[in-house]
Amino acid sequence: RLLELKLGFSLSRSSGGASAGTERGEKETDYKGEAAMASTKVQRIMTQPINLIFRFLQSKARIQIWLFEQKDLRIEGRIIGFDEYMNLVLEEAEELNVKKKTRKPLGWILLKGDNITLMMST
After folding, report:
1. Greater confidence, 9 or 89?
2. What is the mean pLDDT of residues 27-50?
3. What's the predicted TM-score (pTM) here?
4. Residue 37 DSSP symbol
5. What pLDDT score was predicted for residue 45?
6. Which terminus of the chain has fewer CB atoms gathered within 10 Å of its CB, N or C?
7. How many domains does the chain contain in total?
8. For a pLDDT cut of 70, what percent of the chain falls above it?
9. Distance CA 94, CA 3 (A)
10. Looking at residue 44, what is its pLDDT?
């Protein structure tokens, strides 16, 4: 209230009653409507990594995994199990050598989560 007296206008954004600023012909802005519009424009739900892995498991999608500090090697396979540490059990796993463009069949493997840099469906 003291600030209102010094400045000569109200800082409140409520619609009840005119402030000194609006009495002088200045337009009062309604920020509530802008906030409501912004929240309805983009309504995206953040996907947790564990949920994405679970989706790969459910869909039996073939995925490619980039390995930590092994830029020339990648692993492809289907997730059949995982845990909270992102350790993965893969079936039909293959080791891909990016430089040589070769594939080595591995079968069923357990891949430690520490080795995973990126996961994507192929």
Report:
1. 89
2. 66
3. 0.62
4. H
5. 82
6. N
7. 2
8. 65
9. 70
10. 77
- Name the one residue in this structure whose structure tokens are 């079936």: 91
Same domain, 108 and 63: yes
Q: Dig out the tokens for 6 from the structure.
A: 């010094």
CA distance 20 to 8: 6
DSSP string of 51-69? HHHHHHHHHT-EEEEEETT
20 sits in which H/E element: helix 20-23
Whether 24 and 54 map to the same domain: the answer is no
Pair (62, 109) in one structural domain = yes
CA-CA-CA-CA dihedral for 7, 13, 15, 16, to nearest 10: -50
My answer on whether 83 and 110 are in the same domain is yes
Q: Is there a single domain that holds both residue 104 and residue 70?
A: yes
Q: Are 89 and 110 in contact (CB under 8 A)?
A: yes
Checking 101-109 for CB contacts under 8 A at 24+ apart, the result is 106/75, 106/77, 108/80, 109/75, 109/77
Q: Are residues 9 and 56 in the same domain?
A: no
Q: Domain range spanning residue 25?
A: 2-41
> Are 12 and 64 members of one domain?
no
Of 57, 58, 114, 62, the C-alpha closest to 85 is: 114
Do 62 and 117 have their domain in common? yes
